[in-house]
Amino acid sequence: MVGRGDAHRKAGAGRFSVALDGGTVAGRITPAAGRYGGRDASERRAERRRRFLEAGLEMFGAVHGYRGTKIADLCKAAGLSSRQFYEEFRTLEDLLAQLHLYVNDVAERAVLDILPAIQDKPARERLELMLRAYVKGAVSDPRHARIAYVEIVGVSPRLDRQRLERRAVWIDLLGRQIDDALERGELPPDDYRIAGPAYVGAVNGLMHDWVVGWVDATVEEITDELIKIALGRFRIVE
């Protein structure tokens, strides 16, 4: 599935401008100041950073994967030098870390953006719409799915912590929806503390196996299965 979604690779210059700011990375080289080509140092840096992030998304998510990518490969894809890379990042792991947060933010925004419009719908319909929005946000660009569910796993203790921290955000989001449904009388009384982490874990496991090709299914089939799993555990009161 990694080869699908080529149209998503032709993003505009502002693709990462909101989700990933410049930040300060300890140990990186300080870039030169002053205006050049009509742009000041901050504008040039933002453009370089965008190009490295776009190149990382392509190399990690569609070409060699994180473990198969060297800095020279990344710089060639970005059309920039290794010196310019070290002005923005210390290591390829730093770049992967930022891309992991970015692709999760895209999926989260896809869910949050629809919540105001579905609050008055029945619980079952809300659940289905949220899950469809999640899957669309997570996998409509196959490179995002590869980074979120495959490339980030087992890289380092630091990224394992980041992955678990980001998973906790999803568990919290699901927990808020469960609490809301309980208040509305749409779910039977139960202890749902385990259900949230269990469901998010099931989602991550299925998505990982699907992205690497161990599960042969369409996006629609994956989405339908996630809905069935949710409906089986969260017994909505009709």
Automatic annotation (TrEMBL):
Domain HTH tetR-type stretches: 53-98
InterPro entries (alphabetical): Homeodomain-like_sf, HTH-type_TetR-like_transc_reg, HTH_TetR, KstR2_TetR_C, Tet_transcr_reg_TetR-rel_C_sf
Pfam name, any one: TetR_C_24
GO molecular function: DNA-binding transcription factor activity; transcription cis-regulatory region binding
HTH-type transcriptional repressor KstR2 C-terminal domain span: 121-231
Domain of life: Bacteria
Keywords linked to the UniProt accession: DNA-binding
Name of the protein in its database record: TetR/AcrR family transcriptional regulator
Protein source organism: Streptomyces mexicanus
Species classification: Bacteria, Bacillati, Actinomycetota, Actinomycetes, Kitasatosporales
